[in-house]
Amino acid sequence: METKPFETVCIIGAGFMGAQIGLHCATHGYTVWFVDILEEELQRAVQRHSEELDARLEKEQITPDEKEAILSRTHVTTKIQEGAPKAQLVIESVPERLEIKHEVFTQLDEVCLSHTILATNSSSIRISAIEEVTNRPKKVLNMHFYPPVWQRTMVELMRGTATSDETIESVRQFVRTIDLTPLLVRRESTGFIFNRVWRAIKKECLHLVDNGVASHEDVDRAWMIATAMPAGPFGLMDVVGLDVVRDIEMVYYRESGDETDAPPKFLLDKIERGELGMKTGKGFYTYPNPAFQAPGWLKGDKEN
Ligand SMILES: NC(=O)c1ccc[n+]([C@@H]2O[C@H](COP(=O)([O-])OP(=O)(O)OC[C@H]3O[C@@H](n4cnc5c(N)ncnc54)[C@H](O)[C@@H]3O)[C@@H](O)[C@H]2O)c1
Question: For position 248, what pLDDT does the model report?
């Protein structure tokens, strides 16, 4: 086991991703400070942590003492100047808007110790678009996690224009100490590594249906039979949310200007009708019991 390169980690933004990343660090022995502008988000994160640990307790994956120890290592505050200066690594996970990221990194650069490493968990904003607001470009990087953090056990690390080898090495070591696999993105890349692969699959599947080649059900059946996965690309898009899928496709489209990268009209029509996937009860499938989970569906017994 690698030795811990840091003692304390600070998470900025205790929402969906920040809460998970911080809990995972605390589970692996780190002291964690959560900073959020909203007190209710902090309380929600504490509640989610407690529920997640109770579920692990029930499965006998942890003991009651371990639960208490993990929770005692986590701290919450609405003041960045209270949490961030205590950390040797800060992971920012605020909403995906450049101006918010700029504001947070400007504050972090002011309040953090000079050796503290600053990372963004952004899905699409490169650190090179953020680094300029700091005076420590050698100590900033993208650190991209996948939810649920404890199940999708990889973290993609991507440099900015000046990120040092030392920074990458300590973060790589840190990632191993929280039992995740660090993947190094060697050149700046929208979508890092895995999202590029997933995006190619998603784009082709959307084209197959848009061009009338196959139904989304048969595309999913092909995928599920070939890979033995429990859902196909359309089922997965429903989980992500079709509006989020559209927004991500738009990022690639704006970057390339290539018409084939634009989200297809049938997807936009679904969004227009409020069919956003699992979160609205209908997307490509209907929820909570999507057809692809029904017995016999894979054999083509039932159409959705
Ligand atoms: N959702 C995903 O599946 C996913 C996966 C990987 C990466 N990401 C990235 O993670 C980041 C966060 O996404 P999320 O889904 O957790 O969003 P979210 O909306 O659930 O959480 C964002 C949190 O940031 C807080 N916040 C807003 N402004 C702040 C500020 N100035 N200082 C401190 N806190 C502030 C909000 O109150 C909220 O609690 C985004 O950059 C996103 O691209 C998301």
Answer: 87
